[in-house]
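Weekly structure sync, notes
Attendees: PL (lead), two postdocs, one rotation student
Agenda item 3: pending single-chain targets
PL asked that the sequence for the first pending target be pasted directly into the notes so everyone works from the same version. It is reproduced below exactly as submitted, 137 residues in total.
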Amino acid sequence: MGKATLLVIDDTKATLASTQDQLKSAGYVVEGAESSKDAVELAKSMSIDLIYNKIAMPEFDGVMLSKKIKKALPKCLVVFVPADAPGTHKEDKHVMVILEGQSLAKSIPFDGDLVKMTEAILKGDILTATHPEKPAA
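Predicted structure, written out during the meeting:
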């Protein structure tokens, strides 16, 4: 089985390029979008397994962007990334993950290793203990 396809959304070119490079070096197929509109168009045109979505974006915020993308890709995992998360050294960093079929995000710790976190999220390892099962309808 091949590596997952990821979409990185960030309006800061340097951060976008750095994040894409880290994930590509780990063997992932990585697309990038510098705007919310570009991200929605990419989501409509391809299959994406996981999205790293910056929370604060100029056109519309990460929550609205996530809702638009989830319409096109309901099974896609979405990770909300604060502006300071990738490549910074702040203490106690967290990211928010929206699981397949869920509308609420769950906070998970981020230790700065983007590749390790990506692998754990895609395997489901990082979410198993931190997110309760979806209640039966």
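Discussion points:
- The helical segments are 13-25, 36-45, 62-72, 114-123, 125-128.
- The first helix runs from residue 13 to 25.
Action: rotation student to compare against the earlier draft before next sync.
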